[in-house]
Specification:
Elements lengths: L4 H10 L6 H12 L3 H13 L3 H13 L7 H13 L5 H11 L2 H16 L7 H14 L5 H13 L6 H9 L3 H21 L21
Helix pairs in contact: 2-3, 3-4, 4-5, 5-6, 5-7, 7-8, 8-9, 9-10, 9-11
């Protein structure tokens, strides 16, 4: 049975070919010809290798149950993975799938993504802190407001100035007590990043002790 033309066109029109174009193209051809298992196999392999566009299409396949068992949790997971790879239409897909998912599925995807991002260690790049904040904000049933601020603030401190408004919004949402707690946690997080950063310790880290307080304070 051939893949419905409208769905085939959706896969083709949403995402252009990128690196690994030959494999990506073969997956699209397979889907267009109704070979959904083969298309899913190729997209899964590409997604596992870090191809964000393949992640997006894999999420669509899991949502539709084409070439793979229909699975809301895995659809949401791969949609979020593509969102973290900055695939343009991914935010809209994650929001749609989050509404369709059960609370248990959202919680499982939240925990899985956080574990994967945190596996980079305390010395993760600014992007990692931004990803932690996005996942917490987008999937937690009740986001940890203090931790959310710390992650946004770490991203800004490490050079992601474009998320400064989100850091400030997160701070504004804290109570006075929470803000004081967040300030301490932020210094601790920055200090941990300093002491585990690869290569030469950044000069700014010289003003911090291992406890996260500034020297001479």
């Amino acid at each position: 049975m051939n893949l419905r033309p409208a769905l085939a066109a959706f896969f083709l029109s949403v995402l252009p070919l990128s690196g690994g174009a030959e494999d990506f193209s073969s997956a699209l051809v397979a889907l267009r010809e109704g070979q959904t298992v083969e298309g899913a196999r190729v997209f899964h392999a590409l997604a596992q290798a870090g191809d964000g566009e393949a992640m997006y299409n894999l999420a669509l396949l899991y949502r539709q149950g084409l070439g793979l068992p229909k699975n809301g949790e895995l659809a949401l997971y791969w949609a979020w993975r593509s969102r973290l790879e900055a695939i343009g239409p991914a935010p809209a897909l994650t929001e749609l799938l989050a509404k369709e998912a059960t609370p248990a599925h959202r919680a499982a995807v939240h925990d899985r993504l956080l574990d994967e991002i945190k596996a980079q260690g305390a010395a993760m790049p600014a992007r990692g802190f931004m990803e932690l904040a996005l996942v917490e904000e987008g999937l937690a049933s009740k986001p940890d407001a203090v931790q959310l601020y710390v992650w946004w603030a770490m991203a800004v401190a490490l050079g992601q100035a474009q998320v400064l408004p989100r850091r400030d919004a997160a701070l504004a949402a804290l109570s006075e007590k929470q803000a004081a707690e967040a300030e301490i946690k932020l210094l601790e997080s920055f200090s941990a990043w300093c002491h585990t950063a690869s290569g030469e310790e950044p000069a700014i880290c010289g003003g911090l002790t291992t406890s996260g307080t500034t020297k001479g304070s």
